C-alpha cells in the first residue's frame, strides 16, 4: 500500500466498540471484497470492504475476520483468515500478509490460512447461538453484483439454519459515524493532499485547457503524496456542464469567461476527503458570477454553524433551505410570489438548489451514519450548498469537510484550502 501503516491500536479500539454491542454468545463474520473482472484476464484495482478494514486494518483480498467475544478459549475471541502466501505468489503478485505481519497490522494474534475457515467456523457454531451477518444497508446503496459478503451469507444460512441471525450494520452505522482521533487525522491528511492538488490547479488553469488535463494534474499530485488517487469519480465541469450534478465525462474544453465546478478530492489509507470549489477559467469572476458565488459561500458558512451535537439532519436541511431562499430572492432568481405559492414538498429554492447540503463522510465518501438520530461530537460531515443556473450557463457549488465539536462551531478540515473570491483570483493571476 502507498500509505504509511496505521497503528493497530485504532483497530483494537474499533473491535472493542463493535463486540461491546453484540448479543451474548454470538459470532460476527466480515469478508473482504472480491477482485472484480473486466474481461479476458483483466480486473479492476482491488478496493477493500470498508467494514473489515475498519475492524482489522487488513487491506487484502480473500480475507475474513471472525469475532466471538464469548468464545470458550481466549484465542478464539478474534481470528483472521488469510490467503496463504507462497514464493510463487510473491514473485507474480508481490508480498501478501504473513501471520506475523497480519498481527502487526491488526493486533489480532490468532491468524489462520483461509483453507481452515470452514472447519473452525463449524466449531464456533457449536458454541454459539447467534450469527451477525454483514449486509449493506446504507441509505444510498444500490447493489446489483453479488458480493463475497452476500455469497457467504447465502452459504451460511443454508448450513446453519438453526442459529439466530442478527445484523452487524446497525452497530457499524453508529460506531463508524463517530470518528476516533486517529481517523480524524487520516481524513485531515486526505484533505491536505486535496489542498495540494487544488493549489496546483490554480496556476495551471487557463482558457482552452481541457477538463481531462485538469483531472490529470490532480491525480499526479494525489499519487505523488501517497494517495491511491481520487476518493470518488471526479467531477470537472466547465460552463453548463456544472448543471449536471454528476457530470463525469470530463472531456470538454474550458472556455474563457466560463466557470469550472471541481468536485474532486483525494483518499488516503482508504479514508476520503470530499471537496468542491468553483473557479474562473480566465482567472477572474464576472460581477454576476461573483454575486452568486458569494451567496453560496454565505449559505455554506451559516449552514456549517448549525452542525452541532443534538442537531437533527432533517431539520438542519429545512433551515438551510430558508437560508438559500433568502439568497435566491436577493439574486432575483425567485420572487416572493414563488415562495408564497411553493409546494412544501418541493420548495421554490429547489429549482436552483436541488440536492442535500451535508452527508456523513469517512471511510466511505457517503459514510455510515443514521440520519434520524441526533448529530454527535466527532462526526464528520460535508457542507456543500450550490446554485445551478442553466439559463446563465454556469453552476456554483462549494464544499468543505468539518468535524462536529462538543461545543461551538465544527472544526473545518479544509480551512487551509482557498475559497474566498479574492484569494482564488490572486492565486490564479500570480
TrEMBL record:
Domain Aminopeptidase P N-terminal as annotated: residue spans: 6-142
Domain of life assignment: Bacteria
Co-factor(s): Mn(2+)
Record family assignment: Belongs to the peptidase M24B family.
InterPro entries per UniProt: Aminopep_P_N, Creatin/AminoP/Spt16_N, Creatinase/aminopeptidase-like, Pept_M24, X-Pro_dipept-like
Gene3D superfamilies linked to this entry: Creatinase/methionine aminopeptidase superfamily, Creatinase/prolidase N-terminal domain
A single GO BP: proteolysis
Protein name, entry field: Xaa-Pro aminopeptidase
Keyword set includes Zinc-finger: no
Molecular function per GO: manganese ion binding; metalloaminopeptidase activity
EC number: 3.4.11.9
Catalytic activity: Release of any N-terminal amino acid, including proline, that is linked to proline, even from a dipeptide or tripeptide
Keywords: Aminopeptidase, Hydrolase, Manganese, Metal-binding, Protease
Amino acid at each position: 500500500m502507498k500509505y504509511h501503516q496505521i497503528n493497530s491500536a485504532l483497530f483494537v479500539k474499533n473491535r472493542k466498540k463493535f463486540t461491546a454491542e453484540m448479543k451474548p454468545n454470538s459470532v460476527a463474520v466480515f469478508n473482504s471484497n472480491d477482485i472484480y473482472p473486466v474481461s479476458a484476464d483483466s480486473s479492476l484495482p482491488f478496493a477493500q470492504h470498508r467494514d473489515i478494514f475498519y475492524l482489522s486494518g487488513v487491506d487484502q483480498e480473500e480475507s475474513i475476520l471472525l469475532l466471538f467475544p464469548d468464545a470458550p478459549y481466549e484465542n478464539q475471541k478474534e481470528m483472521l483468515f488469510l490467503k496463504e502466501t507462497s514464493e510463487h505468489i510473491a514473485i507474480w503478485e508481490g508480498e501478501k500478509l504473513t501471520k506475523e505481519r497480519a498481527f502487526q497490522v491488526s493486533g489480532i494474534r490468532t491468524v489462520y490460512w483461509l483453507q481452515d475457515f470452514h472447519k473452525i467456523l463449524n466449531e464456533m457454531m457449536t458454541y454459539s447461538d447467534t450469527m451477525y451477518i454483514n449486509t449493506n444497508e446504507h441509505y444510498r446503496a444500490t447493489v446489483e453484483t453479488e458480493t463475497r459478503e452476500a455469497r457467504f451469507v447465502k452459504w451460511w444460512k443454508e448450513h446453519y439454519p438453526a442459529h439466530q441471525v442478527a445484523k452487524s450494520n446497525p452497530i457499524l452505522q453508529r460506531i463508524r459515524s463517530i470518528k476516533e482521533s486517529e481517523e480524524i487525522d487520516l481524513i485531515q491528511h486526505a484533505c491536505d493532499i486535496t489542498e495540494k492538488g487544488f493549489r496546483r490547479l490554480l496556476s495551471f488553469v487557463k482558457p482552452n485547457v481541457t477538463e481531462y488535463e485538469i483531472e490529470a494534474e490532480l491525480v499526479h499530485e494525489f499519487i505523488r503524496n501517497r494517495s491511491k488517487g481520487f476518493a470518488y469519480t471526479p467531477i470537472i465541469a466547465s460552463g453548463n456542464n456544472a448543471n449536471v450534478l454528476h457530470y463525469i465525462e470530463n472531456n470538454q474544453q474550458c472556455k474563457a469567461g466560463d466557470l469550472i465546478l471541481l468536485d474532486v478530492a483525494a483518499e488516503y489509507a482508504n479514508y476520503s476527503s470530499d471537496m468542491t470549489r468553483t473557479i474562473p477559467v480566465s482567472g477572474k469572476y464576472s460581477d454576476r458570477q461573483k454575486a452568486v458565488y458569494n451567496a453560496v459561500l454565505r449559505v455554506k458558512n451559516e449552514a456549517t454553524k448549525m452542525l452541532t451535537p443534538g442537531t437533527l439532519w432533517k431539520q438542519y436541511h429545512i433551515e438551510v433551505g430558508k437560508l438559500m431562499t433568502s439568497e435566491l430572492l436577493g439574486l432575483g432568481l425567485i420572487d416572493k410570489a414563488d415562495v408564497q405559492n411553493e409546494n412544501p414538498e418541493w420548495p421554490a429554492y429547489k429549482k436552483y438548489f436541488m440536492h442535500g447540503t451535508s452527508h456523513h463522510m469517512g471511510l466511505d465518501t457517503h459514510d455510515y451514519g443514521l440520519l434520524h438520530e441526533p448529530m454527535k461530537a466527532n462526526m464528520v460531515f460535508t457542507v456543500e450548498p450550490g446554485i445551478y443556473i442553466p439559463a446563465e450557463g454556469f453552476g456554483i457549488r462549494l464544499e468543505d469537510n468539518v468535524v462536529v465539536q462538543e461545543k461551538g462551531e465544527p472544526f473545518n478540515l479544509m480551512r487551509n484550502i482557498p475559497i474566498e473570491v479574492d484569494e482564488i483570483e490572486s492565486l490564479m493571476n500570480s
